[in-house]
Amino acid sequence: MTALTDKPSPADAPRLPRATLIAIGAVALCAVIWGTTWYGITWQLGVVDPIVSVTWRFGLAALVLFAGMAIARQPRGLTRRQHLEAVGQGAFTFAVSYAFTYQSEQHVPSAIVAVIFAALAFLNLSLFRVAAGQKPHRLSWAGAALGVAGVAVLSGSELLSARLGPQAAMGIGFALVAVTSSAFGNLFAWRAQRAGAPLLASTAWAMAYGTGMLAVYGLATGAEFRIEPTAGYLISLVYLAVLGSVVAFVVYFWIARSRGYALASYISALTPPIAMLVSVAFENARFGLWALVGLAVVIAGQALMIRAARKPPA
Length: 314
Prior knowledge:
This protein is mainly alpha-helical.
């Protein structure tokens, strides 16, 4: 007897390429880590000046990276040009961006900052188009637009209820500087890649340079360099430095080098939903239907960005 129908077995179904699955996993890892750092940062606030806490964070992260490379016998040196690119990356990614992000959150809710940072994918697409002549696929633009729209929906209630007075306007201005600085930091990271800088060494030196700049800024503004000797502060510092900085940024720049900076920067649109889940679990926060709608839009944008990474430029 012959079979009436020949149905394809599950094993015959098309599968995502291994590289795509790895990219999806890396994006998810970064989103989870950075989504939880919003809660971790709350353990840093109160006693120690935020600029000082950020300095400790990236200083410790740089030391961990250099130590790890020494143990693994990875190259730690850079050429003169590679050092110059690392200086630019450290200045824009770790010093200016984080300094203005922390200043921004002194004036406006973090959700508003998250909305502004969701524009990072758009800024990357535009900046790399102008400065590097890259022509991303139209799906990249569509995915970035969905990311902005999704995070805007997630944070819409706070945006509508915010009192946009002088203090809020200042906070929004600081956040715009921060996200723009991050885009330029990505451009310097790309230039370091083009100059042949190893990923780990380039990231470590960029963090070290950024730490030095933050320390100079802190001293210039009269910040007191101290550490709060409590379990909460120390545990959060280690978490933010090791996972939030070493692991997340290494994975982020690996995604950027292998899959493109537009896809990597879309992580900034995925972190707010993770932060929402953490807030529900640890801070008893509650979110309604619009939050779920925004989450669905963000996930849809992520799917488009991953598809765009596999397609030729438009």
